[in-house]
Structure formats: C-alpha cells, structure tokens
Design goal:
Blueprint: E1 2-4, E2 11-14, E3 17-21, E4 28-29, E5 36-39, E6 44-54, E7 58-59, E8 65-70, E9 73-78, E10 81-82, E11 85-96
Antiparallel strand pairs: 1-6, 2-5, 3-4, 3-8, 6-11, 7-10, 8-9
C-alpha cells in the first residue's frame, strides 16, 4: 500500500492497524508497527505486508482481504485467493521521496 503526501511540507501519519481475514473488517492482526512516521513534502509512505502461505491457493474473486484501520476509516484490499491459509508475519514501511 502506498500513501502519498502531495503537499509541499512534511506531514505526520499514524500507521494503521492491519489484519488479514475473509471479511472486509476484522481478521488476524499483523504485529504492531511503529506509531507515527513523517512523510516529506511530495514524498510517499510504502507499506509491505509479509505473510506465510500454507496450502495450495487458488484464484477467487472474493478470497481473503487485507484490512487496514486508520482512525475511523477502514480500507480493505482483496487478495483474490482462497483455499489456503495466510498467516501475518510482519508489516514493514519505508519513506520515499
């Protein structure tokens, strides 16, 4: 996931809570990340989720979701795989910019 800062000055961004599950809310949480990061003007924050895959995944329009909660907003990204287990390992981030 990438978040851009289109402004000219840096901004502080609180890293979201991230989970993986079959629904668009909730799920198994990833280990917590550092709280707040600073994104430079015209920069971006790039987050990467690492999982352990158990079983044979197959393509599925519904499948499992990565769910991110930022304050009162929830963002859900469909991974379009099913019939396998994805266990959250870690969430990393880097600042580009």
């Amino acid at each position: 996931m990438t978040t851009r800062n289109d402004g000219a000055t840096s901004c502080a961004w609180v890293l979201p809570t991230v989970a993986i599950g079959t629904e668009t809310t909730g799920g198994t949480p990833f280990p917590a990340s550092a709280g707040t990061v600073h994104i430079p003007g015209h920069g971006q924050l790039v987050m990467t989720a690492y999982v352990r895959v158990t079983g044979q995944c197959r393509a599925d329009k519904q499948g499992v979701h990565i769910n991110m909660v930022e304050g009162s907003f929830t963002y859900s990204f469909g991974l379009r795989v099913a019939d396998c287990t994805l266990t959250p390992l870690r969430l990393t981030h880097r600042i580009a910019g």
